[in-house]
Design goal:
single chain; 358 residues; six-stranded parallel beta sheet
């Protein structure tokens, strides 16, 4: 089978890593899989023309709205992988919600990273069809939730760069630590509002003024230009907080591995690949207490969950002072990832689902 795979590839996000991994699974099943960036297409007609010209037999997409709107009218079988933002955020927009509903109807299958994302989709569209569609049509729509949505947690693969130089990385970031042993907290995210990279800046800056050994590094691509300028201006005025441009994945994994802890401050998440990668790298995670993060982080078990900046500082101090707590968290987190986020299981799931597109 010749398959077109549409995903958000630029700027780099967790979806790009996921898409490349899944693309390799499909290729290993003796299919031809062409991975393209959603940003390359301005209309569904452009995608239809490409499908016709290249004779693609099926399509796979990540992100129900961004990818799905390009498939309306394509006429080829397709499957959808929820991105997280589509179900958590885009669903609140009436126009986007209508488009996503149409995409859902025609998809062969849908994949959710967590049970929570599946429940949100089920609740919304079943409710919508039950109360706003003609009652005679409801029996047709109702089965979609149980028959189409498959829950498949993301698999984890980490490959830290062997030649990575930690001290050089810190110096290039602006941190001079010749006479101190610093505690580096690494916040990995694309610079966009849903990731809320400024959530902890004020509290961290105040903490750094009292404890000069603690530093926060925000690292990731500039996704939203206007918002990026806000981040840069805020970080410039802060103490102990540094902004670093994106790095190749292997270098990023090495930086995560060498950090004291990895931080997630997102407003919403589907399933954070950075959190899972940190667990796999034996690095403790401090994550904002939101549904997407609670699905993979159990407080004081596989990580620490905070509601606000003051709790973040409190839990960070505990992590620094309580070595036993830190060791317990990384051990349990590593075990959790091995048991629930196996890339082998993920591979078999996508091989099986791809067959539904034949």
């Amino acid at each position: 089978m010749k398959l077109l795979f549409l995903a958000c590839l630029s700027p780099p996000t967790g979806n790009r890593t996921t898409a490349r991994r899944i693309s390799e699974y499909i290729q290993s099943s003796d299919h031809v899989c062409t991975l393209r960036d959603i940003a390359d297409f301005k209309s569904s007609s452009q995608v239809s023309d490409l499908i016709s010209e290249e004779k693609f037999e099926a399509v796979l997409i990540i992100h129900l709205y961004k990818g799905g709107r390009l498939l309306l009218g394509s006429g080829v079988p397709y499957g959808v992988i929820f991105g997280g933002t589509d179900i958590n955020e885009d669903i609140k927009d009436e126009k986007k919600r209508e488009i996503m509903g149409a995409v859902l109807q025609k998809s062969r299958f849908l994949v959710a990273f967590t049970d929570q994302l599946k429940k949100i989709a089920e609740h919304h569209w079943i409710y919508f069809w039950k109360y706003y569609s003609p009652s005679i049509l409801f029996p047709i729509f109702k089965p979609f939730a149980s028959s189409k949505i498959h829950v498949q947690p993301q698999g984890v693969v980490t490959k830290p760069c062997e030649k990575f130089k930690w001290i050089e990385f810190l110096q290039n970031s602006g941190i001079q630590c010749k006479n101190i042993d610093p505690y580096i907290f690494l916040l990995v995210c694309g610079l966009r509002q849903v990731k809320d990279p400024l959530f902890l800046v004020d509290a961290f800056s105040a903490w750094h003024n009292k404890e000069p050994r603690v530093y926060l590094i925000i690292i990731g691509p500039e996704v939203d230009t206007a918002f990026t300028q806000q981040v840069k201006a805020k970080v410039k005025r802060a103490h102990g907080v540094y902004l670093v441009s994106e790095r190749p994945q292997e270098e990023l994994h090495a930086a995560m591995r060498d950090s004291f802890a990895v931080v997630n401050s997102s407003i919403s998440e589907g399933m954070s690949s950075t959190i899972l990668e940190s667990m796999d790298l034996n690095v403790p995670v401090l994550a904002r207490n939101i549904p997407g993060n609670r699905a993979i982080v159990k407080h004081e078990n596989t990580g620490l969950l905070f509601f606000d900046p003051s709790e973040f500082v409190e839990f960070s101090k505990r992590l620094i002072s309580d070595t036993c707590l830190k060791e317990s968290i990384v051990t349990k987190a590593k075990k959790y990832v091995a048991e629930h986020h196996s890339w082998n299981t993920e591979r078999e799931t996508y091989r099986r689902l791809t067959a539904k597109l034949l």
